[in-house]
Amino acid sequence: xxxxxxxxxxxxxxxxxxxxxxxxxxxxxxxxxxxxxxxxxxxxxxxxxxxxxxxxxxxxxxxxxxxxxxxxxxxxxxxxxxxxxxxxxxxxxxxxxxxxxxxxxxxxxxxxxxxxxxxxxxxxxxxxxxxxxxxxxxxxxxxxxxxxxxxxxxxxxxxxxxxxxxxxxxxxxxxxxxxxxx
Length: 182
Description:
This protein has helices at 3-37, 41-57, 68-86, 96-104, 113-125, 128-139, 144-151, 155-181. By secondary structure, the protein is mainly α. The protein has two domains: 1-111, RNA polymerase sigma factor, region 2, helix turn helix motif (Rna Polymerase Sigma Factor, Chain: A, Orthogonal Bundle), CATH 1.10.1740; 112-182, Arc Repressor Mutant, subunit A, CATH 1.10.10. It is elongated and about 65 Å long. The relative contact order is 0.10.
């Protein structure tokens, strides 16, 4: 190995170490982000470990001075989607479409642990019929028209019920977060 190769290896090793340190410093944010997209604690923990491995492997592509959390959460989102594709046919709480929408709306600092906890608590508070519609829409990935057919409702009624369920969840989460801050 030449002196140039040794110096390059040292630079790459130092960069990888810095990226790993950033990951460790922000792993709770990355874990909260994964949990918000995949409310399965064991699977989330496994995926966070996989994200760490990818972050390590791709450390040379991280541009220092940019938002590390946003970069790591992008990798996490792709890992969640990959995990879901590998488990097709098993019941899922959220569809890929919803994961993409949630990930697109995540601020650069990512979703906090409290927000994901609040969402889970609020989901439990939905009325049984609303929970069933949310499950059919976001877990099974059914269109409102199909949900209406299955439930014997009109599509307009399903759209209204889903809209009300989303509004309830949004207000419930906001209220829970305000309460936890105060």
